[in-house]
Each structure stands twice: as structure tokens, then as C-alpha cells.
Structure to design on (177 residues):
């Protein structure tokens, strides 16, 4: 039986996939659109794996789906950074070239946490608390991944959204708009 949290996850994944398809159908040639679509696909996969995790019957299945969820999560900082560097930029290639080492690091670091340190993603098997919720404690690698993802979200996309007023684009110190 489909649980409500799983249903919400699958609905979110469907919305992410729909948005990615819509953006790509508008203009496949624009780099910012492709970066947005890849980010939405990664978010959609994260939601699918979260929903499958919520539907899992045994602890080993929960860990399997959560590992895949964190793998999808590891792609988010790099894709959002690429989107942030390319959106509303007349010469986005220059920005991406200037930030290439940061972009590579933002892709490599989270993926290495999931790939190389995968045994440290979780501390133990899932447990059930007093309200019958399934808890899966993160290990040090999982915490660092979650913090890195939050940090990259805050300092790439969110700063441009929250710091700009209507019709304005806020650029970092090295970007010329």
C-alpha cells in the first residue's frame, strides 16, 4: 500500500520531471536550461528514492534506497552552481571557465563522500522510535554531504534569488553582469 509520505515524494518527482521536460522542450541549446533540467532530474531522482525508501519493508532496503538518494543529492550542488553561473548571463562561458575549479570541486567533493566514504554514510541500521517512525542515523559522511548541499544551495542559487530585487540580477565579486 502506498503511504502518504511516499505519495508526496512520487508527486514531487513527477513535478520535477515535468519541469525538466518543459524546460528542455523550450530550447535545448541554452546551457542554463540544460543545467536546470539536470538539477530537476537529480531532485526528481532524490524524491523517487525517498519514496521507495518510505515504502521499504526491511532495514536493508531502506539503506539501499537512502544510499541512492544521497548519490542523487551529491549531484545537486554542482548542477545548481552551473545553473547559477549561467542563468541570465550574456557570456556564461566566461563565468563557467573562471569558476571551473570551484565547479569541479563542488561536483567532486559530494560525489567522493558518497562513493569513497559510502560506509560512513549511516551510523547504524534504521530503528523505530516511540511514534513508530523509522529513523536512520547519518554517519559523518552523511552529515558532511547534507551540510555541503545546504551550504552550496545557500551560496549559489538562494543568494541570487533573495538578494535581488524585481528585475535585478545580483552577481558575485568576480562576475560582470
Amino acid at each position: 500500500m502506498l503511504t502518504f509520505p511516499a505519495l508526496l515524494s512520487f508527486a514531487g518527482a513527477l513535478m520535477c520531471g515535468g519541469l525538466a521536460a518543459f524546460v528542455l522542450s523550450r530550447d535545448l541549446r541554452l546551457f542554463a536550461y540544460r543545467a536546470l533540467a539536470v538539477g530537476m532530474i537529480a531532485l526528481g531522482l532524490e524524491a523517487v528514492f525517498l519514496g521507495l525508501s518510505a515504502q521499504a519493508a526491511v532495514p536493508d532496503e531502506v539503506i539501499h534506497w537512502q544510499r541512492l538518494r544521497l548519490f542523487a543529492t551529491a549531484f545537486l550542488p554542482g548542477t545548481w552552481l552551473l545553473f547559477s553561473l549561467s542563468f541570465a548571463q550574456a557570456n556564461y562561458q566566461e563565468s563557467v571557465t573562471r569558476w571551473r575549479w570551484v565547479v569541479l570541486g563542488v561536483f567532486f567533493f559530494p560525489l567522493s563522500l558518497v562513493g569513497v566514504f559510502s560506509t560512513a554514510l549511516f551510523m547504524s541500521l534504521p530503528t523505530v522510535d516511540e511514534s513508530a517512525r523509522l529513523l536512520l542515523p547519518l554517519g559523518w559522511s552523511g552529515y558532511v554531504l547534507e551540510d555541503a548541499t545546504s551550504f552550496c544551495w545557500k551560496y549559489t542559487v538562494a543568494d541570487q534569488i533573495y538578494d535581488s530585487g524585481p528585475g535585478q540580477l545580483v552577481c558575485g565579486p568576480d562576475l560582470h553582469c
Remarks:
- The beta strands are 127-128, 134-135.
- The chain has one domain: 4-163.
